[in-house]
Each structure stands twice: as structure tokens, then as C-alpha cells.
Amino acid sequence: MFTLRVLTLLLLLLLLALSARLPRSAADPGDELCLTRLSESLQDPGSRLSNWSKAAFAEPCNGFTSSLSGATCNNGRIYKLSLSGLGLRGSIPANLANCTSLQALDLSANALTGPIPPDLQGLVNLAVLNLSSNRLSGQIPLQLALCAYLNVIDLHSNLLSGPIPQQLGLLVRLSAFDVSNNRLEGQIPGSLSNRTGNLPRFNASSFEGNKGLYGYPLAPMKTKGLSVLAIVGIGLGSGLASLVLSFTGVCIWLRVTERKMSMEEVSGTFWIFR
């Protein structure tokens, strides 16, 4: 019995030694391309991503850990990218969609510009998308509705314009949605503002700060131009002015007529005396 235990222990030690000497598996080609293109599209003035190199992209994961700053792995695949508040500049590359196992993407609080690529629809496992507090422009891509597992979409404090895609309301798992402080316009889709009991699906704070955006749950827009009271006042003023002018005209006509009749009487009297 003792000999069997010793042999089992020795066998386990041998297997561990052999596994330690085996090279780590190469990166998934999609992850490698994704990381390479993302690195090329970003500017890192603070050198916060100094260990992002081509060599590291070839082997970014070792099981559940990663040597790359801001990256987390799961079973050898990039699972999460958290690059918030690093002072990064540049744009979001379309090839980011090649990280098909990505479940959380946080690029918030940087200085990124350009559009949100519609290609992000390829992130079919994405649950959290946070691109807030950047300088992203263009429209919100309706293709995000194809990321069926999205729980969080945070795009506040950018320069996004155009309408909110109605298709986003079809994301049944969506529990947090914020597009405040952009340049969005049009009516808030009913699928994002429907009431659940006495409460909206998302409250007004999710939509505030967009001058052209209207509809529930935002407060009614103020009437552009003159108010109703101002219009009534102008109407009354105009009517009064017309009345005064008419009265003045009548008075002048009566005065002129009276003077004319007086002159005619004087003239008739003069001819009688002659």
C-alpha cells in the first residue's frame, strides 16, 4: 500500500515537471490580431501600456492570467480589457471585434476620437461596453443590438449625434444604459422608455444633456419661440392698436366732414348777401 502511494506521488511529480517544460500554447489568431490593431490605433503618451508588444501579443494569456496591463484571460482567451483613465488617444479599431471571447470592454475616461465601429457586433459574448467620457463622434451603431448578452451600455459624455437606434431596446438583458451628455436628437425609442409598473425602464438621467432629444422619461420640451401668454398678449395688443387707429380715423373723418360742411354754409351765405 505504501509502495503504491509512493509510485502515485512520483507519477504526479513527473507529470508536473513535464507540463512545466512544455511551451505555452500560442495565442488565438483572433486575439493576436485584435490586440495588435488596438495597440496600433492607440497613442499612449503616459506609457501606461509599456508591456504591450508584439511578442506579448503572441502569448497574451497563461491560463487565467495575462502579462498585458489591463487584460484578463479565461482559458487562454482575452476575456476582459479594462483600459480606463489611462490618458489614451486615438480611435477604436474595427479589428477589436476579433477578440470574440471578450465579455467586458472598458475604454472610458480617455481621449478617444472617431466613430464607434459597427464591427463590434462581432463581440457576440460582450456583456459590458463602457466607452464613456471620451470624444467619440458619429452615430450609435444599431449593430450593437446583435450583441445579445449586453447588460451594460455606457456612452455618456461623448460627441455622439443622430437618433438612438430603436433596435437597442431589443436587448432583453440590458440593465444599465447611459447616453447622457452627447449631441443626440430625435425621440427616445419606446422600447427604452417603456414603464415597468410605475417606473421607466431607464430614468431621465440616462438621456439628459442632449438638446435635441425628447420624449418620455424626459420632461416635456419647452415651447420654442413665443409662449402662449406672449401670443395672446400680442393679439390683444394688436387688436387694441387697430381699435385706436380705427377710432382715430373716424374722428379725423368726422372733423374733416364737419369743416367741409361749415365752409359750404359760409359760401352759401356769402352768395345770398351778394
From TrEMBL:
One of its GO terms (cellular component) is plasma membrane. It is a single-pass type I membrane protein. It is found in: Cell membrane. Keywords: Cell membrane, Glycoprotein, Leucine-rich repeat, Membrane, Receptor, Repeat, Signal, Transmembrane, Transmembrane helix. The chain crosses the membrane at residues 228-254. The keyword Ubl conjugation does not apply. Its main location: membrane. InterPro entries: Leu-rich_rpt (IPR001611), LRR_dom_sf (IPR032675), RLP23-like (IPR046956). The keyword Nuclease does not apply. Residues 1-19 form the signal peptide. PANTHER family: LEUCINE-RICH REPEAT-CONTAINING N-TERMINAL PLANT-TYPE DOMAIN-CONTAINING PROTEIN (PTHR48063:SF93), LRR RECEPTOR-LIKE KINASE (PTHR48063). Belongs to the RLP family. This is Uncharacterized protein. It comes from Eucalyptus globulus (Tasmanian blue gum). The lineage of its organism: Eukaryota, Viridiplantae, Streptophyta, Embryophyta, Tracheophyta.
